[in-house]
Specification:
alpha+beta, 50% helix, rod-shaped
């Protein structure tokens, strides 16, 4: 009778017998499969991000160079130069290049938000020249 009292007291305190309440934990193979899938997705995203960054850098450099020639050699407004980039047929992330002008330095900067930025400056003796790429 003393053991029956202890058992009942234990149940009231919230200590249940093992197996009394089924738990809903995923099985080990499901958990491992989920972790493997997440690692594969993370690896693919890292690989894709690098490709996007390289494409954006090329697009930004192209935009800066074309924008510099358009603005400072052809003396056209920057908005018209941005229109030239649209006509150039850039595709993918490189098509998202936006241009900005630094009139004091006579430089155009092409940028793709969060990915790349490149500048080209104009000098009378050498024309438009890209600044060295910074990795």
């Amino acid at each position: 009778m003393a053991t029956a009292g202890k058992s009942g007291a234990g149940d009231k305190q919230g200590t249940a017998h093992p197996g009394a309440y089924p738990t809903r934990q995923p099985s080990r193979w499901k958990r491992n499969l989920t972790v493997l899938a997440l690692l594969a997705i993370a690896g693919w995203l890292a690989w894709a991000w690098q490709g996007l960054r390289e494409e954006a850098l090329v697009g930004a450099a192209y935009g800066a160079r074309v924008g510099c020639v358009c603005r400072f050699v052809s003396q056209r407004p920057l908005k018209a130069c941005e229109g030239d980039l649209k006509i150039a047929g850039l595709s993918g992330i490189a098509a998202r290049v936006s241009l900005s002008e630094d009139t004091e330095r006579q430089a155009i900067t092409g940028s793709v938000p969060l990915l790349a930025r490149q500048s080209a400056d104009f000098r009378e003796d050498r024309g438009c020249q890209l600044k060295p790429w910074q990795d």
